[in-house]
Design brief:
The protein has 303 residues and is α+β, with helices and mostly antiparallel strands. It has one domain (3-297): DD-peptidase/beta-lactamase superfamily (Beta-lactamase), CATH 3.40.710.10. 43% of the residues lie in helices and 10% in strands. The chain contains 13 helices and seven strands. The chain has helices at residues 3-13, 28-31, 65-77, 98-102, 113-126, 133-142, 151-158, 162-173, 181-192, 198-204, 223-236, 242-248, 285-298; strands spanning 39-44, 49-53, 59-60, 195-196, 253-255, 260-265, 269-274. Strands 2-1-7-6-5 form a five-stranded antiparallel beta sheet. Helix 3 packs across helix 5 (113-126). Bound molecules: glutamine (GLN). Residues 62-63, 94-95, 113, 157, 164, 192, 256-257, 282 line the site of glutamine.
Length: 303
Amino acid sequence: MDMQNLLDDIVGTIKPHLGQGEVAGYIPELGAVGADHFGISVATREGEVFASGDSEMAFSIQSISKVFALALVLADDGDRIWKRVFREPSGNPFNSLVQLEHEDGIPRNPFINAGALVVTDRLLSISENPSTAVRDLLRQESGNDSLVVDAVVADSEARHSNRNKSLAHFLASCGNLDNPVDDVLDAYISQCSLAMSCTDLALASRFLASNGMRGDGTALLSPPQTKRINAVMLTCGTYDAAGEFAYRVGLPGKSGVGGGIIAVVPNNCTVCVWSPGLGRSGNSVAGMAALDEFTTRTGLSIF
Ligand code: GLN
């Protein structure tokens, strides 16, 4: 079966999963998105795209942004970030407070919220244009110059961010933030609120399937750095469902509570799926089912 037929077929087979799970209501504006959407896009290393369903509809990328922020920090600052963030699966919800206190303000990994706040803090310190660094990378790699922060979503999250504020203040009390808490939160919320389609995200993620090489042929990351980001995605990218994700999908992946998930087939292609209904750990139910179907039917998994 060719790739286009496969994706069209997956759009049909995941239909029973649409509407399953809960749309993220703790950010009210995300809760307003219809639960029945589903999109899927595959981008090859060379930039060829196959897509089906709501693949061109923009959604809130939320925690998928954490991969790109980490990539920028590793690219500019090498391994320094690993003194401030561990890289072990948390086994806890992405916004848990408990573990952070037990572990003296060193977040378990860069993909839970506490870890991403530390990565964002570092990006604020080292980037020439910290407020647009993640957006600019995503624009360049997707080729979509019009992608922007959804100000309504950002405002909605900002008005409902007591949990992330708590994490940030606790990090600051442990000496693990260099910038003011409000600056870190603003930058974090704004990168989470970028609006992109499955095709945008699949294209923008290609450096992860290309040994760190950007679309223009320059290196964003070295091959070993790319290997390491993919490893952290595999073990931590879907939070306390990372074991289930590895079992079902068998690829490095990163989810966001907007319902998107990116997955990487190293040296081959990237896949982005989107459907807003989330399971208990904050990962798209239909998205996970579609990626399971994709790797099971193509054999494109790292296992
Ligand atoms: N902006 C969201 C939050 O901080 C991101 C969480 C997610 O996508 N898992 O809660």
